[in-house]
Amino acid sequence: xxxxxxxxxxxxxxxxxxxxxxxxxxxxxxxxxxxxxxxxxxxxxxxxxxxxxxxxxxxxxxxxxxxxxxxxxxxxxxxxxxxxxxxxxxxxxxxxxxxxxxxxxxxxxxxxxxxxxxxxxxxxxxxxxxxxxxxxxxxxxxxxxxxxxxxxxxxxxxxxxxxxxxxxxxxxxxxxxxxxxxxxxxxxxxxxxxxxxxxxxxxxxxxxxxx
Length: 211
Known about the structure:
There is one protein chain. The chain has a single domain, classed as Ribonuclease H-like superfamily/Ribonuclease H (Nucleotidyltransferase, domain 5). It contains 8 helices and 8 strands. A hairpin with a 3-residue loop joins strand 4 (62-68) and strand 5 (72-76). Helices cover 35% and strands 17% of the residues. The chain is an alpha/beta fold. The radius of gyration is 17 Å and the shape is globular. Helix 7 packs across helix 8 (166-188).
């Protein structure tokens, strides 16, 4: 049994919004307060954004790290503050679970910025296979589980812009928060693959795409 949702169905779903608090972390003082707040959590959602490179062979450094609790999302503007030691220690702390998707992409992006060894991470792409979900993109997985669409309209926007627009902030927060939502929902036991309306008969090959 395989579960996969068609693109045309996703396009008709209501759009996801993040209704929690979004904090822009662009200074060392804000960074310290944010990490202190996050250390109170046992489980967080994680994602990163990099300014798109439109020329072959060009790769930009990670511009944003998004770390979300159930109510708050912190957007660390690494293009402005880098990955300071306190944030690095949080990323390397195996006692705090960090839920993401296609995490090798995030790790590679951070590795171009700093010498860092991520610990305590769980990749949604591996988890959903246990539930016969063949789709691997965040948008598709979320749509299967929650019947809502994550907009990808800001994916290729400039994440190194002097100021992040409200649309960029929403996009970034949703991606990190959605990973946390997916993990909690699957771990709660509420999802029964046999009752999914998106069961397909043919063999579906999941992709490694992040979005």
